[in-house]
Amino acid sequence: MAHRYLPMTETDQKEMLETIGVQSVDELFSDIPEKVRFKGLYNIPEAKSESALLKELKALASKNSDTDSHVSFLGAGIYNHYKPIIVDHVISRSEFYTAYTPYQPEISQGELQAIFEFQTMIAELTGMDLANSSMYDGGTSLAEAGMLAAGHTRRKKILVSDCIHPEYRDVVATYAYGQSIEVVTVPSKDGVTDIEALKSLLDDQTAAVLVQYPNFFGQVEDIKTIGELTHDAKGLFIVSSNPLALGVLTPPGKLGADIVTGDAQPFGIPESFGGPYCGYFATTTKLMRKVPGRLVGETVDHEGRRGYVLTLQAREQHIRREKATSNICSNQALLALAASVAMTALGKQGVQEMAKQNIVKTRFAKNAFEAAGFVVPFQGAHFNEIVVKTNKPVSEINNKLLEKGIIGGFDLGRVYPELVNHALIAVTELRSKEEIETLVAEMGAYNA
Amino acid sequence: MLNENQSLIFELSKEGRVGYSLPEIDVPDFDLAELLPEGYVRKEAAELPEVSELDIMRHYTALSRRNHGVDSGFYPLGSCTMKYNPKINENVARLSGFANIHPLQDESTVQGAMELLYELQTSLVEITGMDEVTLQPAAGAHGEWTALMMIRAFHEANGEGHRNKVIVPDSAHGTNPASAAVAGFETITVKSNEDGLVDLDDLRRVVGEDTAALMLTNPNTLGLFEENILEMAEIIHSVGGKVYYDGANLNAVMSKARPGDMGFDCVHLNLHKTFTGPHGGGGPGSGPVGVKADLIPFLPKPVLVKNEDGSFHFDYNRPQSIGRVKPYYGNFGINVRAYTYIRSMGPDGLKAVTEYAVLNANYMMRRLEPYFDLPYNRHCKHEFVLSGRRQKKLGVRTLDIAKRLLDFGYHPPTIYFPLNVEEGMMIEPTETESKETLDAFCDVMIQIAKETEENPTIVQEAPHTTVVSRLDETRAARSPVLRYTKVEA
Questions:
Q1: CA nearest B407: which of B463, B468, B458?
Q2: Which of B2, B62, B268, B431 is 20 to 30 Å apart from A1, CA to CA?
């Protein structure tokens, strides 16, 4: 058959069959036993032409309420941020997106150097010695950090703060089950990890303590104290961080973190209904040889020219095989490239300015909600998120907001039973003063 | 120009230059020290580059020219299915209604996205012959682990938690044993016979009441179809184990044989391979898992369900589920591309894909057979494995041949894999390459075979035309430099 992706012609086919020495293509499948042979065609829709398919899929896309046509205050780990337009131009270069893993460094220097730069930027933001080439996403990266800690300390228990993204905690639990590691939740108090409770849970079986900074509620945890307590118990201290926030927050690397993980989605990566995103994994030189995933290192060629290669491959699953503590093989190279371009565009100044805008705008929203009579239960510092108590179910309020073209906050009652009728409102630099005021006014009107 | 050292972006940085355009600030300003706790305001700025927009574009354009993709030239990397990445896929994934929707939006506002995912699941159920598919796993290895976790949960639910052994052939993908390990299993290796297929006697020897599963790629990594698949499935099932299909090689059997009809209980697919991902330089992928009915209760949460009224919802009420394997619902953007591809091909197209992929592989194998050793001489499927042992005797290693191919603008085959072939070269042309391309590549391979006899140095010292020559990997690993550090002037 003729198809634009299939260059085979009848003449080609005839010549090729002759070279092979068979009469028909079917003969090449004669090794498939009759009993398992699939006969006929798949029962799937008939092919569509390029234009007809595009039309159909555009119609399907238009059924969704996107952030082009709506004003979004939904965050909870994934944010509607400024995406420098240049990002998409760079990642659309097909030398990048149609390449495979750079196993042949001589013809992959572009990808390798881009990843080396990504590793540097993540190490800079987190204040850690080094970072890997990326992980699937923030949740699986955090889970891998917990598994590394258990393997490294030979202890079988990890303590996970209740203020970590609930879906991240779910993923940690699944990974931990696979490797027979016990997960204990550290309760929260006033929207941050309960340090007294943590003290009573730490013991000589604790492999690691996992916290989020800023946490799921947008609060800035006292990671210095938590890190000290963790180290007193000889566990590893693992921090999951929004890398944008680290533009202005003291980096976890300066406050005792052994591993910092997170998602680079705030840097130029669209919300895309849950993925693909870009997990990152940063750590200390001490743990370098235990890092999951791929690492790019600098070296020289035979003529002494600088070049880059995948390195420390002995750690990788394809060599260690059954001794592996991680099975990650691919990474999120294209998204790491996107994040690199966004971090480069923002640069040293822009990342601070953008991070600050997020804090300042969140503070403006908090003040506006309080002025309108709402209770904002968790005080303290806020990044992106505030928790707002409502008199009515959040889902009802959100339905009303939708009629006004607004995507409301995350309904915390879905995952925190004690926070029924509490919305997690996300404010980024893209939300204008007017939009924030409209949100407060509309919520106030329905909340009465 | 291409041969010049490409500066790191940090080396292009100049204080005061900017490449961004942030929104105007329209709310009252605050001093961060007022808003953040003491000790939590960053003192030293992160050393990100300071460059203009044109600096950025030139830098990355230069990097892209130092990179080889499928669009640059032929990429016969075995087991990776480096086929053409259709451009309509990129446009569809960037439609605002797909790219700019949040995973936690109310379900009523994302019905179009959920419909697409449901239709993709439905197509994959048909293609694999399974009963249900989850799109949550992020990549192939992630899918392997997900499926093994489900198998473990299945055995535990049946009071057979003692089943802790996973059987893997010696030719398996390296991720198989690693995935088994992180799912809490021990791996047992089963040997291949002289035909390159799983040795049934050895399989019978290693199975037992502790068998949890057999992991199998079919066709296997030699590109050979495991003809005894039904007997193998029977051997595993008779002792109560499950049979797992590594779908990395599905491009070889679409419309010819479905895992579900071959006796497999579960399967993972690599949408970035068979279904045109693209590969993105190493990711993102997407690794859906399909299962037979008795494993459905253990699927990761949430499960996408179609309601009676034709709408869709995510079902979280799955008490036997293994839980979440990833935040949200998987790599949606890659799933959109795979769906677009399936709809571009249709049933006739997918059949032709496999037929042409297999025809191309057999054609190349026969053209190259006189010049290189072919350890397993029978019809291959989508790929085949040559051995460079004849050339090795003349002092030319398979690595040298791979490097010499770079001089001709080709990405080399997968080399030194599978592990059971000496000096292996695993070649997978895919169906999207023309006969002219295959012929040109074969001509170069034949030329290299001749160079090996007449002028081996040119092969041993290759590549000669790339921006860098062979890199010192020992040095990179011995004293790792994993990031740029500013040298003070």
A1: B463
A2: B268
